[in-house]
Structure formats: structure tokens, C-alpha cells
């Protein structure tokens, strides 16, 4: 999620400025009667942002599976008259919408990423997939506008980090000091986790490996309990109920999702 937010912020910073290189004729030219112009593609990205902003919020409020309604993208492009509006006006709206989406994503509880949704085509997915797919859709259309690949910044390449550095990073977080993402690479990400008194996590939609950094206690895994200590490796398949119980105050662990 941190990587997605980083990429969104980069686009919000860069895209409005980069659009200034196009003339009005270049922005409104349609390559074919049934194809959108650059300006209409940008408007479509505003429509997409508005709908996905609502989806990201509503999915977190839903008990059970969230059904995602389809929206008529061609009709919305026509009704919003994107072709007739100034490019700067559309770009400002697009940047504002995606800035608010970042606010929602930054404060989304990690467990909400496993929320099940049903896509407009009827296929099941998770909220995590929905967020990732939104960014992929956004970058695809920006590549159409600019006729080139979009630069994709990632998290710093932390190829080596000590347990002490991980715990320090965790303790320095402004909003939460029980979980911090250290590395994210496509569907794999590494975290450091140190719950206080009670572990409230739920099952996840990815396989998971814990490597205990410090402390000891009991691990509950799919109905079975076993003691754990520093240095132990624990595997949890996707979808399995699990948690740490009766752990010492110095408990901390690496978490690897893939």
C-alpha cells in the first residue's frame, strides 16, 4: 500500500505540470470518431477517481461482500462535457480527487485490505486488488495521453535492514507504533509488527511468514496453539485465523506476505 500511495503522490505532483506541453488542439484531437481525445481521457480519469474514491470508502463500511456497481464511462464523458472544458481545470480536479484518495488509503486499516468485493463483471476480489487495479488503470490511460511509459517510483531499496533499525522505524511512526511496512515489491511486502498486550489481527488473503525478532508467548494457528520464542519461523496459509497470545512486552516479529 505504501508503494501505491508513493506512486499516486508522484503522479499528482507531475501530471498537471507535464500536461502543459500540449496545445489545445493536441488535447482535443480525436484519433478516430469513436476514440477519446487526450482531454476526454483525462476527464474519464476524473470519473474513475470519483467512483473509486466512493468504492474505497463504502467497501470499508460494508459487512459481508461489497457489490461494485458498473458505471457507464462513455456516457459520463459525454455528460461532463470534458472535451469543452479547459485542460487546467480538469487537471486540477483530477489532482484534488487523487489527493483525497491518498488520504483514504493512508488511514485504511490493514485488515480492511482483505475485505471481499464483487467486481462489475461478477468476479470476486479483495479491496487490496481494487486499489491496485485502480492505479494500473490510471497509469494505463496516462500512458495513452503522453504516448510513453509512466515513471513508477518505488519504496527505497532497503536490501538490508537490521532488527534494531526496524524497531526504531516502528517507534518513530506518527500514527501507529505497532506495524510498519519496510519493503514492498509487487505482491510481496515485509513488515515489522509489535502489538501491545493484545493481537487483534484477522485472517489475510495472502500466505504469511513470521520470523520472531524478540519475546515469547503462544501462537494460535487454525485452532492449534504452540509456544514461540525469538528466532522461530511461523507459516500461516492465506485465510487462516491466527494470532499471538500471552506474549511478553518485548515481543516483535518480521512479517512477510507474498
What does this structure look like?
The chain is an alpha+beta fold. The protein folds into 2 domains: 2-146, Four Helix Bundle (Hemerythrin (Met), subunit A); 163-257, Sandwich (Jelly Rolls). Helix content is 40%, strand content 21%. The protein contains 7 helices and 11 strands. It has helices at 2-18, 24-28, 38-61, 73-79, 87-106, 127-146, 163-171; strands at 66-67, 116-118, 124-126, 179-185, 188-193, 208-214, 216-221, 224-229, 233-236, 242-245, 252-257. Strands 4-5-11-6-9 form a 5-stranded antiparallel β-sheet. A 3-stranded mixed β-sheet has the order 1-2-3. A hairpin with a 5-residue loop joins strand 2 (116-118) and strand 3. Helix 1 runs antiparallel to helix 5 (87-106) and helix 3 runs antiparallel to helix 6. The longest helix is centred in the first third of the chain and has 24 residues, at 38-61. The relative contact order is 0.12.
Structure summary, number of beta strands: 11
Determine Rg (CA atoms, Å): 22 Å
CATH topology of the largest domain: Four Helix Bundle (Hemerythrin (Met), subunit A)
**What's the CATH architecture name of the largest domain?**
Up-down Bundle
Q: Would you list the SSEs in sequence order as H and E?
A: HHHEHHEEHHEEEEEEEE
List segments where confidence is low: pLDDT < 50 over at least 5 consecutive residues: none
CATH H-tier superfamily of the largest domain:
dinb family like domain
| Alpha-beta content class | alpha+beta
Question: What is the C-level CATH assignment of the largest domain?
Answer: Mainly Alpha
For the record, the count of structural domains works out to: 2
Mean pLDDT reading: 90
Tell me about the largest β-sheet. 5 strands, antiparallel
**Overall 3D form:** elongated
Count, helices: 7
Cα separation of the termini: 13 Å
Which bin fits the share of residues in helices?
25-40%
Could you give the order of strands across the largest sheet?
Answer: 4-5-11-6-9
β-strand amount: 15-25%
Amino acid at each position: 500500500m505504501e508503494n501505491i500511495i508513493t506512486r499516486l503522490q508522484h503522479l499528482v505532483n507531475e501530471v498537471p505540470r507535464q500536461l502543459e506541453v500540449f496545445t489545445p488542439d493536441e488535447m482535443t484531437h480525436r484519433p478516430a470518431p469513436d476514440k477519446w481525445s487526450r482531454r476526454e481521457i483525462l476527464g474519464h480519469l476524473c470519473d474513475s477517481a470519483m467512483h473509486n474514491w466512493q468504492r474505497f470508502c463504502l467497501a470499508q463500511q460494508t459487512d459481508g461482500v461489497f457489490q461494485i456497481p458498473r458505471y457507464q464511462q462513455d456516457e459520463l464523458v459525454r455528460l461532463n462535457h470534458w472535451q469543452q472544458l479547459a485542460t487546467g481545470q480538469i487537471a486540477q480536479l483530477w489532482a484534488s480527487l487523487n489527493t483525497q484518495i491518498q488520504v483514504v488509503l493512508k488511514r485504511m486499516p490493514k485488515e480492511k485490505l482483505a475485505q471481499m468485493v464483487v467486481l462489475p463483471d461478477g468476479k470476486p476480489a479483495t479491496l487490496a486488488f481494487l486499489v491496485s487495479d485502480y492505479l494500473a488503470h490510471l497509469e494505463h490511460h496516462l500512458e495513452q495521453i503522453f504516448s510513453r511509459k509512466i515513471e513508477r517510483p518505488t519504496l527505497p531499496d532497503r536490501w538490508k535492514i537490521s532488527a534494531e533499525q526496524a524497531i526504531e522505524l516502528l517507534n518513530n511512526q506518527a500514527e501507529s507504533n505497532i506495524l510498519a511496512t519496510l519493503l514492498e515489491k509487487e505482491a510481496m511486502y515485509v513488515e515489522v509488527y509489535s502489538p501491545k498486550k493484545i493481537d487483534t489481527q484477522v485472517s489475510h488473503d495472502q500466505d504469511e511468514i513470521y520470523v520472531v525478532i524478540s519475546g515469547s508467548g503462544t501462537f494460535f494457528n487454525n485452532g492449534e496453539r504452540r509456544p514461540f520464542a525469538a528466532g522461530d519461523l511461523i507459516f500461516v496459509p492465506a485465510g487462516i485465523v491466527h494470532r499471538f497470545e500471552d506474549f511478553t512486552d518485548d515481543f516483535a516479529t518480521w512479517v512477510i506476505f507474498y
